[in-house]
Amino acid sequence: MHRFNIQWFARVLMSALFLIAGVRKIFAFKATVGYFAAIGLPFAEVVTALVILIEAGGAIALILGWRLKPLALLLAVYTVATALIGHKFWAADPAQFSGQLNNFFKNIAIAGGFLLLVAHADKSSSKA
Q1: Each residue of 43-76: pLDDT tens digit?
Q2: Residues 23-44 pLDDT 10s
Q3: CA pair distance 7, 43, nearest whole angstrom
Q4: Measured on CA atoms in the order 15, 18, 21, 24, is the torsion positive or negative?
Q5: Can you tell me where the transmembrane regions are (predicted)?
């Protein structure tokens, strides 16, 4: 299999999580706004719209290979930010500690995958 085909398949796999999460937030917009407000994010409606754009739009752009390097960098930063905001294992009660720790480091690992994509993206797969 050619490197491009492997890279495209990897991008599809990486996109699945973000596309599903973004679409779910669209259908549960008010609940997502409420959750974001409850965890202390300011301007929860605006943040929700931006998160949907990053997740769903970013996933589609990633599959298509649109501006791949800057997109992968944005998604890496976003994924680390969501780990820090949404998976605070250091402040979790004992019953939630393991789950939050695992989710935090899954996000960190996903960000690492995005950084690898930044470093090794084929120029032919990156559209200007």
Answers
A1: 999 999 999 999 999 999 999 999 999 999 999 9
A2: 999 999 999 999 999 999 999 9
A3: 36
A4: negative
A5: 38-64, 71-92, 104-121
SS3 per-residue string spanning the chain: CCHHHHHHHHHHHHHHHHHHHHHHHHHCHHHHHHHHHHCCCCCHHHHHHHHHHHHHHHHHHHHHCECHHHHHHHHHHHHHHHHHHHCCHHHCCHHHHHHHHHHHHHHHHHHHHHHHHHHHCCHHHCEC
Q: Which residue in this structure is represented by tokens 């259908």?
A: 27
Decide: 81 and 87 in contact? Cβ < 8 Å.
no
